[in-house]
């Protein structure tokens, strides 16, 4: 609900992509792939607005529309919405393409400026909800693959931890005995005594060399 509220207050979908995944509790591997594509391509709210507004302007100007004209409006609005930019009131610019296709007056687009501030929030919220539903569906369909990837990652992590774990009191490379069996050799501790020159002179004085 927080994401929907922010979008309705005037935000753009591309600004709140990380928030969608956290609120929907969708796996980040799915949300980071699906949501950016949906924010660019999935403009269902914009397509609906352009279609309804174009038919409204055509009827207001007494322009007859047949089945071919309706199909032209739907196809043109869908194609134009996919290429729409994620900026406020971008649908009004796309309406000029649809109105030109059905030979309706393009200047009548200015009639929608008075209500576009509210309609833009509604269609943007619709776009965002479609992206979230799509991400949830993709996650549900990919649940087995995600679980298999998690198990594989856990196995690889456990193997790496075993390799990095030090063996106390034993060499890492065991020695091989004469009969072919491998025996772990314990570490040998070598103590080196560093004596000073004064200690060496005292030792010579106390233990003189024997005369031959």
Give a summary of the structure in a few sentences:
This protein has nine helices and two strands; from the N terminus they run ααααααααββα. With 212 residues, the chain is mainly α. It has a domain at 2-146: Sodium:dicarboxylate symporter (Proton glutamate symport protein), CATH 1.10.3860.10.
Task: Walk me through what this model shows.
This protein has 212 residues and is mostly helical. The protein has a domain at 2-146: Sodium:dicarboxylate symporter (Proton glutamate symport protein), CATH 1.10.3860. The protein has nine helices and two strands. It has helices at residues 2-8, 17-24, 28-41, 44-60, 67-82, 90-101, 113-141, 143-164, 197-206; strands spanning 175-176, 182-183. The chain has a two-stranded antiparallel sheet. α3 packs antiparallel against α7 (113-141). The relative contact order is 0.12.
Please specify the SSE layout and strand pairing.
Elements: H1 2-8, H2 17-24, H3 28-41, H4 44-60, H5 67-82, H6 90-101, H7 113-141, H8 143-164, E1 175-176, E2 182-183, H9 197-206
Antiparallel strand pairs: 1-2
């Amino acid at each position: 609900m927080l994401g929907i509220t922010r979008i309705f207050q005037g935000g753009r979908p591309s600004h709140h992509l990380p928030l969608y995944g956290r609120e929907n509790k969708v796996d980040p591997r799915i949300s980071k792939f699906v949501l950016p594509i949906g924010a660019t391509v999935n403009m269902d709210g914009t397509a609906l607005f352009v279609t309804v507004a174009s038919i409204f302007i055509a009827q207001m100007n007494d322009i007859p529309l047949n089945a071919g004209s309706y199909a032209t409006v739907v196809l043109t609005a869908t194609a134009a919405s996919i290429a729409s930019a994620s900026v406020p009131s971008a649908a009004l610019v796309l309406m000029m393409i649809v109105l030109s296709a059905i030979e309706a007056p393009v200047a009548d687009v200015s009639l929608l400026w008075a209500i576009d501030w509210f309609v833009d929030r509604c269609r943007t919220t619709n776009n965002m909800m479609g992206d979230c539903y799509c991400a949830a569906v993709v996650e549900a369909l990919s649940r087995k693959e995600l679980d298999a990837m998690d198990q594989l990652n856990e196995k690889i992590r456990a193997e790496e931890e075993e390799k990095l774990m030090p063996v106390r009191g034993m060499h890492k490379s065991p020695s091989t005995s004469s009969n072919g069996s491998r025996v772990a050799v314990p570490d040998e501790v070598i103590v080196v005594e560093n004596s000073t020159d004064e200690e060496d002179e005292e030792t010579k004085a106390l233990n003189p060399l024997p005369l031959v």
